[in-house]
Records
---
Amino acid sequence: MHSGALLVLLLLPLAGLAQSSGASRTTAPPPVVRKTQPNAIALPTDGQVREWINVWQKRLGLGEWEIDAKIVRIWDLPQDTIANIHWTLSSKKATIKVLNAVDSTLKPAAFLKDTELSVVHELVHLSMAKLPLDPKHTELEEEAVKRISTALVGTVKR
């Protein structure tokens, strides 16, 4: 990653992945960086998350998908995650949830970058939605998604 930070992205197996019509994936939080004061800035905005989805959806060739985005509180995500995606293949609809900045321990600039990476990570999972994967052994998928999303975000000039 261009910032040099090591992200630990884990996939939490979720019930029901064996069904071909719907699935979910999650992104684990990065290593904790403690701050002396809680994060007072609500970054990113709904508009920013929507913009990232639009840009990366086009780049990844996911134009046929209807993708919703939600900034949610920590209790609205699976434990130990900062983002997740749920999709339904038959309707080509997906929802990405990302962590609200008020629940993060990262500095605002780091949180903003990490959230974009999380959006890309979840969209890469979506791009693999048709692949026949074993929901009991998702570690290979997660490793590939982590490498691809980190490489993609690292290629963008800021």
---
Amino acid sequence: MSTDLRTTPRTNDTTVAPTGTRGRTLTIIGFVCAALALFILPIVFGPAAIVLGIVGWRQGDRLGVWAAVAGAVALVAGLILGAMVFAANEANNNT
């Protein structure tokens, strides 16, 4: 039996479900890993931030997506920064 939308009462339930503390904790750890990925082992901490952000998002924290994005950006930026430091070091050693 199908429901007729004209006779179904409307509800004004606009409450937002609370964020799970476990999801928020994983998201915060994801942001910390993203910050670490800029300067220390970006190939390790960048993917860790992405995974933690996605898992935090799946557990109900809306900021988890931003932690994953920050991890991806920090991964790329950390690799570029590391390559620049390595190239500058090699240039100084060759002179």
